[in-house]
Amino acid sequence: MKLVRIRASDTQAIVAVYEFLSDLCHEYGAFRKWYYDAVIPGLDNGKRLIYAVTDCRKIVAVLILKNAVEKKICTLRVAEGYRNQGIATNLLKIACQELRCAAPLITVSSYHIAEFESLLKKNGFILYAEYPNYYKQGISEFAFNGPLI
To answer: Phi and psi (nearest 5°) for 53?
Structure first.
C-alpha cells in the first residue's frame, strides 16, 4: 500500500477521491459542494490537505484535513475490506503531524459512531459534545476534542 498526498493539480486523483467518498452525500447533503468549493480550492494555500492510501492504484482510504484556525480531521474513511489493519491509526498520526496539533477536532455522525468509538478512544480522542440535527435532520454529529466552529 502507498500513501499519496493529493495536490490541486492532480485532477484525476481529486475525482477518484470524490468517487471513493461519494456515498457521504447521503449523510451530508452539501458534501459535493463542500468538497469542490471548499476542500479543493484550499489545497493550493495549504488550508486543506488530502491524503489517500492506495492498493494497486485503487483508493482504499482517505484523510481530509482542515489546517486553519480550526485544526480538524474533516474526513477519515477506510474501505471495508481494509479496516482493522492500522490504516486509520496511521492516518490519525499523519493528521496530528500535519496539523501540528496533539488533539485535533474530529466529528462523527451517528451513522458511524459505533465504528469509530474504539479507534478514537484508543488514540486519545475525548467526546466533547453531541450536536443533534447539525447536518441532517434526525442525525447527530459527535464532536471530539472540542466544539464545532
So the answer is: -105, 130
- pLDDT tens, residue by residue, 82-101: 999 999 999 999 999 999 99
CB proximity list for 129: less than 8 A, separation 6 or greater = 142, 143, 147, 148
pLDDT in tens, 32-58: 999 999 999 999 999 999 999 999 999
- pTM of the predicted model as reported, rounded to 2 decimal places: 0.94
DSSP string, the chain: -EEEEEPTT-HHHHHHHHHHHGGGGGTSTTHHHHIIIIIHHHHHHTSEEEEEEEETTEEEEEEEEEESSSEEEEEEEE-GGGTTSSHHHHHHHHHHHHHT-SS-EEEEETTTHHHHHHHHHHTT--EEEEEETSSSTT-EEEEESS---
Pull the grid cell for residue 26. Answer: 447521503
Pairwise CA distance, residues 16 & 12, whole Å:
6
Residue 142 has pLDDT above 90, yes or no: yes
